Amino acid sequence: MDGSEVIPYPSHSMQSSALSPDAIITTTMKTASSPIALLGIPLDLGAENLGVDIGPKAFRYTKLVDKLASAGLNVTDHGDIPCPDRHTAKVGDPKQRHLKEILAVSEATAAKVEGFVRAGQRAVGLGGDHSVTLGLVAGASAAVDGDIGLIYLDAHGDMNTAATTLTGNIHGMHLASLMGFGGAELVNAYRPSAKVNKQNLLHIGGSDFDQAELELIRRENLSAFTLRDLLSTSLAPLWVKVDELASRVNHIWISFDLDVMNEQYAPGAGMPNRAGLSYREIAAIADYIGEKCPVIGVDIVEYNPLLDRDSRTADLAAELIAKFFGADYSWYTDYLAKNQRS
To answer: Which of 113, 120, 229, 317 is the most exposed place for a label (fewest CB within 10 A)?
Structure first.
């Protein structure tokens, strides 16, 4: 299969009914108090030495669960998915590096997430490199029979295939795979065919797309709100795109790569970005999504604590997870908790 082929999305999922505004509010309120299952996936085989394999442990060290609890979220930590060691794993196909190992981790991750969602829980996935999203979204999609939208915040497209990749790194292919584009091995991870209808993707904050990714976006009319769009029009057109997505699906997954942020606010990204979103922009985006969307899962990926400064990036991650779920955590929340009178 080359980069132009697509494995179609299951037909029953193409017919998911639209939600009225009242239904969106009801759905969001229904999930607002649902418990949250936290899962670490310390995988670093999808990229080249980003230092992100210690991300989940570092998030826990900075008391992520306590921070989310202070925002009123009921979070249970389910530990980590076992991941192969980079030093012993074999590269295999240079066009799909470490494919076998990444598929195994994705299968284990998907089974866990499907179980969480079927049990009425929402999920938080802690990466690891961005290829962990393959298993996270596959599991969530299976649990809701494909009735899922994906809001994807990343400076990069992650929409290459084995036929178009320049690096062979799977953390640049998994989004294409989730929509059914590319090789059968990745597309059919956990369940046959695509996991997300291509019409139900909203990519936000992109600034570094490969040419093949730009061609895919144009050819398939994928929804992308780039950094240039934001600078040209501000955020109002994005709100329309978010509302439209929330009207088409009953469940939404948020995938957040820290490199979508300016390195001033997220120095601990695996690939720090000097031209990313500002704090004001991401806070507004996360607030809006948390208010308008029925979010069933969030992943935060490509955190390298060795590059972080004063836990700035980890604190931002905690704040955004809370906001995406319609709650609130910030330095002020922490201040009040520390200074509350008994």
So the answer is: 120
Other residues' Cβ atoms within 10 Å of the Cβ of residue 287: 15
| 262 phi, psi to nearest 5 deg | -60, 140
Helix (H) / strand (E) element for 254: namely strand 252-257
Identity at 191, one-letter amino acid code: R
| Both structure tokens of 22 | 């009242």
- Rounded Cα distance between 129 and 131, Å, is 6
Kindly state the percentage of the chain with pLDDT values over 90.
83
Superfamily (CATH) of domain 21-328? Ureohydrolase domain (3.40.800.10)
Query: To the nearest 10°, the Cα dihedral for 134, 137, 142, 144?
Result: -170
Q: Domain coordinates of the chain in residue numbers?
A: 21-328
Q: Which residues pair with 123 in a beta bridge?
A: 37, 297
Helix then strand then coil, % of the chain, to nearest 5? 45, 15, 40
Query: What is the Cα–Cα distance from 215 to 221, expressed in whole angstroms?
Result: 10
Confidence of residue 341 (pLDDT cuts 50, 70, 90): low
A 10 A CB-CB count for 329 gives: 24
pLDDT at 330: 78
Q: What is the DSSP string of 5-54?
A: -BPPPPHHHHTPPPPPHHHHHHHHHHHHT--EEEEEE---TTSSS-SGGG
Q: How does 240-263 read in b/e, with b if 16+ C-beta sit within 10 Å? A: ebbeebbbbbbbbbbbbbbbbbbb
> What's the burial of 92, exposed, middle or buried (CB within 10 Å: 0-12/13-18/19+)?
middle
